[in-house]
Fold this protein.
Amino acid sequence: MEKLEFNNIYNMDCIEGMKKIPDGSIDLIITDPPFAINFGAKRSNYNRTSEKVLEGYNEIPQNDYYAFTLKWMTQAYRVLKETGSMYVFSGWNNLKDILVAIDELGFITVNHIIWKYQFGVVTKRKFVSSHYHCLFICKNDEKRKFFPYARYKKDEKDADGGCLHYKDKEDVWFINREYWTGDKKTPTKLPMELVKKILMYSSEEGDVVLDPFLGSGQVAVVSKMMGRQYIGFEIVKEYYEFIKERLEKGVYRIKSSENENRQIEKLGLFGDA
Ligand SMILES: C[S@@+](CC[C@H](N)C(=O)[O-])C[C@H]1O[C@@H](n2cnc3c(N)ncnc32)[C@H](O)[C@@H]1O
């Protein structure tokens, strides 16, 4: 069977793709699978201009969601190292399928994190949904890597004397979504800050990070920026080409603001760009 290379991404179905990855070869999986809520890629919600949003998002019928989840998670379990971790994002709608599959496959749940972002879609007859679930899971709770002071030193305090590393490790994360106004984008994406946080706590430089559902490629792009190896799959050709362009040109946004460029420089990202 053809073996896939690390530091590459593939335009294919991730279940087939993951079958080509050797057992126990992945250090960290960060992923945000399709939601099975008939998500329309070109809906101009969140105040977006729909022409800038790339078409094609591959959605899964709701009735197939559990079977689909079991299939990709079976492969994820197989390829993950004993020292590895997986972070799976999910909206509330089909969360039950994700939770049942996690138990069924023998994953151990480490934390159930809530990611709170700054805005949702305005509603008239119900409350506004402005959070996501993130399941932090592993195969071996004794062996999994975790770097508790990766972001804040043990004795680092905020202005009120609060312990920064403690606050950063609470399981509700307030991280803003990125707007990318005027830039090319796919319909949903994880913010860089969120991906960075997970990479810093649960991986080291040189580790291999997998995202089976790349979308705009945030996990691969930020992993490369942070000196990790990456591999991933995206079934929609246009999205795959968008990610390739980002990785090959070494740009975070295809047309980025001065501010963001400065941030990227400061982090010493894409040294070879
Ligand atoms: C929620 S999005 C991921 C967004 C991504 N985390 C980001 O930050 O941009 C899910 C992606 O999975 C892709 N997808 C759906 N089914 C797939 C499959 N079987 N194999 C690979 N990709 C798939 C969709 O086209 C979509 O781009």
